[in-house]
Amino acid sequence: MLAVGVVTEVFAQHGVGLPDFDFALCTDRPGPVPCGLDRLASADLLIALPGTDFRTPPAPAVLDALTAAHERGSLVAAHCVGTFALAAAGLLDGRRATTHWRFAELLARRHPAVAVEPDALYIDEGRVITGAGAAAGFDMCLHLLRREYGAAMANGVARDMVLPAHRDGGQAQYLAAPVPEDHQDERLAEVLAWAREHLHEPLPVAELARRAMMSKRSFARRFTAATGTTPHAWLRGLRLSRAEELLETTDLPVEEIARRVGYGSAAVLREQFVRRRGVPPRSYRRSFTNAP
Question: Terminal CA-to-CA distance of the chain, rounded, Å?
Fold first, then answer.
């Protein structure tokens, strides 16, 4: 039911300016879930959800529906142990894929043609996307929104759900993360909110730690426990996400965008953008506008 909640929340109506999807839950055995597999014939995106019976291959009709969707050009995705359904349909052969870390070895053993990467939060292989376990379904779905509609849209949906629009790193960092215990978390939350409003500044870790009234070492440890990543990676992701929004929604010069998100020059922003997003800022902007 967590997986149902994830996709229902992400693809629900989120208000003015955010996408309005034609969303349905489907099954090969209609009942409490009223829609059958016939509804999938016109779907642009299919997401195979995890279930307790994932060790048993899905019904042939389900495998046929997934294969037919892929062949006609639809996006086909799965997260957690829903990945086993895509593997059973042969859609992951020769591709990289991920699943819940606990069942990654089983997936690799059952489907040796699949390159299983157990540490990834999600893996995008074009028209086939897989995500890790539990809450990583949000990461995968937000990635799909970002990919198809842009960062501004994905960030808007993430804000509506009070979630980070993008998390750096993989599953391994969450397996044994300690649970924050005291009022220091409130100070940390205040510092993170302050940092979001001051991205144009350098924001060294020493300054963030000072504002949180912690030593640098304690701050780094507490930060990783609360966010699952390092202060440097968190700031980098935040800056790039904000740069994406500005590239999509404004005609500001790249030099000004670099300044607003805390990079010393357009060249530094370009280097980070190419390394993390695969394209330079101007190419990214052209993909979301009609600019020459």
Answer: 46
> Dmax of the chain from CA atoms?
60
Cβ count near 5 (within 10 Å): 11
Residue 181's contacts (CB-CB under 8 Å, 6 or more residues apart) are none
CB 78 within 8 A of CB 107: no
Distances in Å between the Cα of 188 and the Cα atoms of 24, 47, 126 are 39, 36, 37
pTM: 0.65
- 243 burial type by CB count under 10 A (0-12 exposed, 13-18 middle, 19+ buried): buried
Please state the three-class secondary structure of 224-284 as a single string.
Answer: HHHHCCCHHHHHHHHHHHHHHHHHHHCCCCHHHHHHHCCCCCHHHHHHHHHHHHCCCHHHH
* The token pair that represents 60 in the structure block: 């042939």
The per-residue pLDDT for 172 is 45
| Angle between the N-to-C axes of helices 216-227 and 231-249, in degrees from 0 to 180, rounded to the nearest 10 | 60
Q: What is the per-residue pLDDT for 205?
A: 94
- CA-based nearest residue to 136, from 176, 163, 106, 107: 163
Residue 104, phi then psi, degrees to nearest 5 = -65, -40
Name the stretches of the chain with pLDDT < 70. Answer: 14-18, 164-185, 288-292
**Alpha-carbon gap, residue 242 to 167, rounded angstroms:** 14
Tokens 């939350």 — which residue? 189
